Amino acid sequence: MIRQLMLAQLRVMFREPGVLFWVFGFPILMSWILGIAFSGEGQKNLTLPWVGPDTYLAELSQSGQLSKEEGGWRMEVWGPAKEVLHFKAMEDSEAQTWVRRGRAQLIASFDGTQLHLQLDPKNPEANATFHLLKNGLENQTLELQIDPITTQGGRYVDFLIPGLMAMGIMNSCIWGIGWTLIEMRMKKLLRRMVATPMPKGALIFSQFLNRLVVSTIELSVLFAFAWGYFRISLVGSLLALLALIIAGNIAFAGLALLMACRTSSTTVGSGLVNLTTMPMMILSGIFFSYQNFPEWSWPYLSNLPLSLLADGMRAIIHEGAGLAQVAYPLTALTATGLLCSFLALRVFRWY
Amino acid sequence: MREAVIELKGVVKRFGPLLACDHLDLTLYRGEYVGLLGPNGAGKTTLVEMIEGLQKPDSGEIKIFGKTWSQASKELQGRMGISFQETRFFDKLSVEETLRLFSSLYGGGNERIEKVLGQVALKEKRKTYTVNLSGGQRQRLALGLALLNEPEVLLLDEPTTGLDPNSRRDLWEILQEIRTQGTTLILTTHYMEEAETLCDRILFMDQGKVLADGSLSELLTSMGLTEMIQFELDQPMDKTSLPLELKNLPFELEPGLKKGQVRVEKVIESLPAFLHWIEERGHILKELQSRRMTLDDLFVSMTGRGLTEDD
Ligand SMILES: Nc1ncnc2c1ncn2[C@@H]1O[C@H](COP(=O)(O)OP(=O)(O)O)[C@@H](O)[C@H]1O
Ligand SMILES: [Mg+2]
């Protein structure tokens, strides 16, 4: 009996197209992508901002720990595998920007006696980098001083909150519009509604407005919590933030329409939802910066809709950006959304 | 003069090699209750959905109120009431909320909702989520949506399929009440009883063709012989020995020649002669039944298959 029960369920699983991908393909794909991000392979680029004169680095290079390279210094660390750390000298303000944007998690400087490392101890990536650096300096009798970053913008949670807000908009649209449409089509409710004199645009527009209202409320609640609990305040322009929320909703409403334009099967539908959201959740720098991926991929990754939205939110919330500074993400997101909607509605299956 | 409401000329619909509608010519008139009767796969849904504008014919022309779908889709949608073979609603929307939503889609307010709730007998369920409705209640709600815009033409695709006999009868009653308003009804079904009860015009459909078209009595008398005797004898029957008056009747015998049936004009006229012949031959009658012909018999005689059989 157990055997037949198992057999039946296995058969159902293997005969469902898509399931095989999620069971076997997807985990492999994920580990591969994350592997690129978090292992030395594929040219991981750990560059640390160095603030102040680099005389100490020059000193280290005498003892063979470091070598000079173009634009900075290079340190090879032998752990389980060889890893390379790069130091790049820069102004403090630039270093802060690097950290805020997730390009680096740690700022190094030398005050004559101690090596100061500014980092957020709650950031797992920063800790990993710190330990790597500590390994590299093992045979130096040098005091390492951790200066926890406590000002807004440099902490891990500062990186996280705007990303989560962007992700909120994405999920709200993909589920609220895309999934809902697929379900309505599956139930033949869509064709029943389209068989009334209702203009088709009215249905789509009402969904978009709903998403706008819901995500604005959702984001307000999230931000209020972040403000109360993590003391994150809005440095930039509220107007720009609202504009970005609208643009984000346009972009993801468009993607949702495209995703939902043909299928009437909820199985295929949930696959499509995952296929749309999962890669962006990983590649768009929500939980960790996309700058963990090889440098050549940054221009592509930073132009993913979710990256544009998340980076724009970070710029407004932490760096004080206004409408002018987020003009690019605003236009790009709106254009993406309109283009996707246009394509989707051309092939949309209403019946 | 009767007013034509729906006119089809040479309508063809193919799905690959399959002819779902095979050169249909049809005119339906105002106030008619038309039953599209046919087995599964006959092409009923395809035909109805072409009338509803949801599918396009490959060739031929469909006019409703003298207009084609490409000319006046919004107007036609507003004048028709439709319900599909199966529709589900927003799960967590109540009956009343669903009616309100659809009323607004037809450009109306909430003024008709009470009336419709009464018509489809869902007043007590108005606050119930649609997901919690029974099959019969769900079909009544679908009918309610179709009635919201006071349609001149009502198209119902298998409104009672899958319902228990009581729910089916409830729905028939509702449709009989609406009849007084002069609505034209087109209803598809594979229950002959439904067509017999509700429809004053019955279209037999099979394999994309209309095989017969007329009122119940017209269809039955079109066969000439409207009654039927079914019998079983103790030994094989020899048709050649029948007396003259019975010899030309269409006896149909099952293999083994003991069991069979014969269509007759009037049982009371033919039966005595038949019984007399049986006695004369020394046969013993094991079973005897006589009844009026039904639509099902008619369908079998035209297609060799029953209405509810799947082929
Ligand atoms: N979208 C479609 N694609 C392919 N074949 C179809 C499609 N819709 C209907 N058919 C076929 O056309 C025939 C008529 O179908 P349908 O009109 O649904 O019959 P009915 O409603 O009388 O049961 C059937 O053989 C059915 O399989
Ligand atoms: Mg059908």
Can you offer a commentary on this structure?
The complex is a heterodimer of chains A (351) and B (311). Chain A is α/β, with parallel strands linked by helices and 351 residues long. Chain A has helices at residues 2-15, 19-38, 55-62, 92-100, 124-136, 156-186, 189-194, 200-230, 238-259, 266-283, 298-301, 305-319, 327-347; strands at 46-51, 66-69, 72-78, 82-90, 106-110, 114-119, 143-148. Chain A has a seven-stranded mixed sheet with strand order 2-3-4-1-5-6-7, sandwiched between helices. Chain A is globular. Chain A starts with a helix and ends with a helix. The model of chain A has no long low-confidence stretch (mean pLDDT 86). Chain B has 311 residues and is an alpha/beta fold. Chain B has two domains: 4-220, 3-Layer(aba) Sandwich (Rossmann fold); 227-292, Alpha-Beta Plaits, CATH 3.30.70. Chain B is elongated, with a radius of gyration of 24 Å. Classes of the chains: A alpha/beta (351), B alpha/beta (311). At the A-B interface, helix 7 of A face helix 2 of B. Magnesium ion is lined by residues 44-45, 85, 157-158 of chain B. Chain A: Residues 126-351 form the ABC transmembrane type-2 domain. Chain A: Keywords: Membrane, Transmembrane, Transmembrane helix.
